[in-house]
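Q: Second attempt. The first request was missing the SMILES, so the protein and zinc ion are both included now.
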Amino acid sequence: MKLIRFKIIYHLVLSLSVIYFIAVGSKETSANELDAKAIPVLSSAMASYCKKLDLQFKKFGWDKSECQSYDWIHVRNSVQGDPLAWTVFGDISDEEKPSFKQKDVSIIMCGVHGDEITPIKFCFDIMEYLKVTYADPEVAKRDFANKIVIVAPIVNPDAFFKVHPTRVNAHGVDVNRNFPTKDWARDARKLWMTKFKKDKRRNPGISANSEPEVVFQMNLIKRYGPDKIISVHSPLTMLDYDGPNTIVDGFVDGAKAHELLIQMSKDASDYKIENYPFFPGSLGNWAGKERDIPTYTLELPTSDPSRSAQYWKLFKSAIHNAIAHDLKEKSGAAAKVESDKSADASNTKKVLID
Ligand SMILES: [Zn+2]
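A: Got both inputs this time. The predicted holo structure:
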């Protein structure tokens, strides 16, 4: 009798345990599913990149980057194997469809020169701001409807992650002098050897488009066909514009892009506008001059990391309004990139992958 009672109790306890574990287990599964939706799953490459980034942020006295909280897209790597990553704000689910072409796209790039420290924090400040702003239905509808923002916060990670960050990439090349502009073959190396006396900080490379960090920038532009590009540097304290210009070309499109230049300056306490010269192999030359994509180079006043908060405060509304400023009607840029895609069949594969 005792044995039967023991067996009944034993089975009862066992069954209850099984039911309990199934219940708790399934509860945990659904909680995990929710977490998976809320927190982007990082690739292992991005996870270690983000860890490394937080150490670097700490070194410069900045708050955590929140790098782990973004949805990153990462296709190619730097010379030393770090991800060349970007994140997107706005709905790009129709990227492959004609409707995407109706959207106004801004590309914002930072950290092209790794020793320009403040721009990198500046891009992460932009990302934090956009994360919050895009989540606010009222603002998103009012200012950012139909607006896509692509942010590539560290174009040249090898240079930034060094103990003593450098301007050039791991091959010793300036990735803002290596774009395959029409004047590259004729002028880039000659100018470097004569005017710049082989200055190691301005080495354009042995041949144009030889650096993965340059291919990365070009492919972002080819993939998304931006209506404007903002590239953030330091410490020249000025805003420079390359692209269509009414005053020179008589294009109506250029007027809108020029309007934005003036507006950005006004929004940032009349920040100085300067017409900085073109260089062979620069982004402004390749995207602005040769492809008519309004390209704004924002040079922050210093590379001093302790001033980052100050710079973000100064430019916050300029950046907001620049994104909101619709340049979509300026169809010239998109059309030019389009014809570029079909003309340059060898690039088609690259265009498709990143
Ligand atoms: Zn720079």
